[in-house]
Amino acid sequence: MNRKFIILTVLFIVIIISLNSFELKEVLSIGSDKPNYEFFRIKGVNIDDYGNIYVADFKGCFIREYSKDGKFIAETGKCGQGPGEFLFGTNVILNRNEVIVYDMRNKKILFYENKYLHYLKEKKVRKGRKGLLLGKSGFYTYGINFQDDNVIAKIDNKGNLVKSFFDLYPSILKNVKKDKYYYPLKAMIKDFKIDYNKVTDEFVICFSHYYRGAKLYIIDSEGRIKKEINLTIDNKYKFPEFLLGFPINFPSAFRIIMIDSVHFYKNKYIVIEYKDEEVKEERKKDVKKLSAYIEIIEIKDGKLLGKRVVKSGMRIFKIVGDYIYAKDFDDDIEKLHIFKIERIVK
User: Fold this and answer.
1) pLDDT in tens, 89-120
2) Is 188 inside a domain boundary?
3) Closest C-alpha to 24, from 340, 343, 263
4) Would 112 be classed as within a structural domain?
């Protein structure tokens, strides 16, 4: 047998093994068309120390609690603007004996007791943004704000702004003409994904649009950049320039890579979730090819430890220990799936 062929075959096998160096084993799914188990649009998930699962559904305007084996415990919530009501519940935060939900539309934080989800109180957030995180020293609201280039804002106990930070933006915007369309365009391209690590008191941020030279930024609670990790999802990929024009004129064929979420994993890794979409026009119809992936990246040296193909409808909300909590659709029914990460080979 040709020696060169053997060497190339071995290298190919090594590459395949290295890119599939972890497994996702499903251990539980919650969701059906039955009462207390039907979801409309899951927007936030969290897990307490006993394994109980809390789910925020913004379309249904409810918060539900399930046991660690998926049995329904309690539900609360109602669409509206009054006490205990919300219109766009996003994050679910756990703090001691409280379940905390952020309502982006009404710009308020709602507090419930964690056992049976009884409503406790709420407070307004001035200049609230799209999401909320709880750090060691208080709440942080995050998202694009036209009056402030910074995308993370720390707030006090009364919902007032204390300070804001992280004003970086993707380098692909550097050569864009600053006309009347620049700022809405900047807001779209600057969209980002974020997670917080309470152990290290750090954030990880990644811009949603992937481009050559894209990075993961790890910053501390004061906004100082502690580490930058280069993303190498596809070095041959070219950012679609038509997205930088306004109005957007879609060509007959294009490819877009979008980051769906980033998460700290065991204080040593980052899990990044993304979609790769190709669109081609055939016989005057758009033919779409959508692929979805999860990568595990080591924080210390930025090394890619593994990559896996996942279902295109999957969306990760939380990683606790070795368990991933994500939503997906089965037979058009939205479900919460719990996967265990296994067999990471370094």
Assistant:
1) 778 999 988 999 998 888 899 999 988 899 99
2) yes
3) 340
4) no
